[in-house]
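Chapter review. Work through the record for DUF742 domain-containing protein before attempting the end-of-chapter questions.
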Amino acid sequence: MTPPQRRRDQPGQQPPPPESAAADGENTGRSKNPERLYVITGAADGPRAELDLVTLIVARSDPPPSLPPEQAALLRLCTAPLSVAELTAYLSLPFSALTVLITELITAGLVQARAPIVRQALPDRSLLEAVMHGLQRL
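Structure tokens for DUF742 domain-containing protein:
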């Protein structure tokens, strides 16, 4: 699965009509349906992995045929490291639902979560000033 590409609007092109609401008044959109999220995540009551929006997720193997479609799509997207924020956007799922899916994949050993690189310490201000003054003298 490749990430979606943006399309530029052509002059004179009409935008697609908005999705109409169901006859009974319920919203049928993908991201607005809480029942769909429960079906995707199941009754996952256990502990969840400690994930940030910037945590990188990398697939360790190809998706087995027994995986649900959402988890298989997540594995196909993660052949290269992607952040959790990017995955939420590509799969159109909320962060909480994606956390449950990623936790299941981590416990199965199919993906690896990498913490973002954190700067240990900022350089000394006097060192930066000495470099700046040296560059100004050139």
